[in-house]
Amino acid sequence: MADVARKAGVSLSTVSYVLTGARPVSAETRARIEAAMEELRYTPNAFARGLRGRRSKIIALVFPSRGRGIDISSLGYILGASDHAQSMDYHLLLWTTETQSLAALRALVGQGLLDGVLLMEVRLDDPRISVLNDADIPFAMIGHPGGAIEADWVDTDFDDCVRVAMEHLAGLGHRSIALVNQAATVVETGLGGAVRTREAAERVAAELGLELEAVACDSTATAGSALINGLLDANPRLTGVLAFNEQAAPGVMAGALARGLRVPDDLSVVAIAMSDQAALMSAPAMTAVSADEREMGRLGVELLIKRLEGEAGPHTQKLFEGVLKSRGTSGPARPQRN
Amino acid sequence: MADVARKAGVSLSTVSYVLTGARPVSAETRARIEAAMEELRYTPNAFARGLRGRRSKIIALVFPSRGRGIDISSLGYILGASDHAQSMDYHLLLWTTETQSLAALRALVGQGLLDGVLLMEVRLDDPRISVLNDADIPFAMIGHPGGAIEADWVDTDFDDCVRVAMEHLAGLGHRSIALVNQAATVVETGLGGAVRTREAAERVAAELGLELEAVACDSTATAGSALINGLLDANPRLTGVLAFNEQAAPGVMAGALARGLRVPDDLSVVAIAMSDQAALMSAPAMTAVSADEREMGRLGVELLIKRLEGEAGPHTQKLFEGVLKSRGTSGPARPQRN
DNA sequence: ACGTTTAGTCGAAACGTTTGGACACATCGT
DNA sequence: ACGATGTGTCCAAACGTTTCGACTAAACGT
Lengths: 338, 338
What we know:
Two copies of one chain form a homodimer.
Chain A (H helix, E strand, L loop, with lengths): L1 H7 L3 H9 L6 H14 L5 H8 L4 E5 L9 H16 L3 E5 L6 H9 L5 E4 L7 H9 L3 E4 L9 E5 L1 H14 L4 E5 L3 H5 L3 H17 L2 E5 L5 H14 L5 E4 L4 H11 L9 E5 L3 H4 L7 E4 L2 H16 L8 E4 L2 E3 L13
Parallel strand pairs in A: 1-2, 1-3, 3-4, 4-5, 5-11, 6-7, 6-8, 8-9, 9-10
Antiparallel strand pairs in A: 10-12
Helix pairs in contact in A: 1-3, 5-14, 6-7, 8-10, 11-12
Chain A binds a DNA duplex through helix 2 and helix 4.
């Protein structure tokens, strides 16, 4: 920067002012400075900037997935968030340590590296929230905790998704349905989506007069396959599956197939919150009701950045409704033999 | 830090020395300082550190996917890289702008924010390499350019994958095979894997005396479906498909199904470099030959960090061989009617 | 007993920006 | 013609670390 100033024949501060726009600079001077920057290929040093300016233009995407992996559906959030951060000239740090390692999170935000944090995989009672509050760092969430909270968030409207999916199945004549939820450990730790899906399913099933069995299932195809076998053995009336488990759902289909059943003629499968990319990978393609993950990710960082740049206002909390894409895995219920 | 020093009754430098270990500190003093840090919940400021110390402990994962999305297989690299970076106490910045926006890349590295860069989606003639060389910033690659190069990289051994896959098909009696490659634009821009796969397929087909048709295909299920229809119309002898296109492969299967063909009885499909997670999502699960993406991502950052920390040595360049997982989409070739 | 090394500590100078206070000069309303 | 206001610029003080040189006291080799 000193070189630039010298070359343009101005002081350091003037160069800084054209960079930040904090004070007016005459058009002529500005041009000279910009030329000098161009010529010297000058790029401002991010650390000096962050140190003095108290703004880093870095946000962290906190996405606990260490070891475990990531659903393609969650990938949509990440991509939406990343793209938008990039277009807003922010850097996106990917932070994958587990929800329970609060000390690590505290250390991360304590470094002062981050302007803000975007939280994913939010639990109903999520301890990270108070860590962030204590650290006094702005944050937004994709997902939301139980109870009211003063914070920005976006989330899938699981109630809506479940309702749409179950009405779809009920409309096709299905009377007995299974909910294949996330893994038991996930449900037990109170992951928002998993808990809300279960509750909504029970509620809607009661309303619609459907028989419902809600079960957790590990996120593997073999678990899904084993599960559907057990379910069908125990309840021959079962004709519909509601799946909130991207990796188990194909297993459910495979398990049915292996039993000699056809999808959707003998068993219908409808997925919840499964991205198109994932739904299109099975054959036949999966009927699914989902929100636009990419847009949710985008809006998540938009809200966060708005907050960072001081356009305060009240907190935004937005539920995205589910839209049904009827593909090849749902059809009229097989008539009961009775 | 000043507070810590005051509380422990030492100077700033001494505190710094316990932090960095650059000079010895007596056990007693160290204990006092550490207690003070603990009590004050002190975390060193990342910017000041980066500014003075010339080490940021931040690396960028450059993964051009803006808008386009990410294959699940590529996700494996990212996760592997992220996990390992985290465990080595590095931060991982996700950078998704396109390969051709060199100015953006130059600006990114010019900021001095990064200790190093991990490059993905490497092209045979990749312009980013010289940008990084010019900027004199350490980097490693997942994938590798054509020709010899002084750099660390890991890559899938596409030659090996193709050979294993084609020998598998040939062994099952298939004589006429189609290669469903990545999208035409991707192949044309010279993405390493796509080009090497095509070349290897041609070479191995010749060796094995197989008939081969190599075609590009957009990364969507519908494109795959349309493609296989055209292919089968043009060549009724076709019984095997080699797919290097995660999203089109299920479309190929769906297209065959819609034509009344069965998989694998009438058409076998073998995927190249498709992650297990993706392969297990189709029904039946896809036969695939792939390398361990997660391990590749891990090794990528390991090599980079080694370089950063000055354990120089010669450059490491490692090809990961393909391992065949025979699942439900490959079987004996249907006998030709002639 | 006397230089020489070693361990342990301190003071102060960087690192490359942003920004508050000052100042010079031009413009304006009256 | 005069203070008030606004524009464009500069100087210097931060920001929170790391690290170099210097110093003291103890331990060491001869």
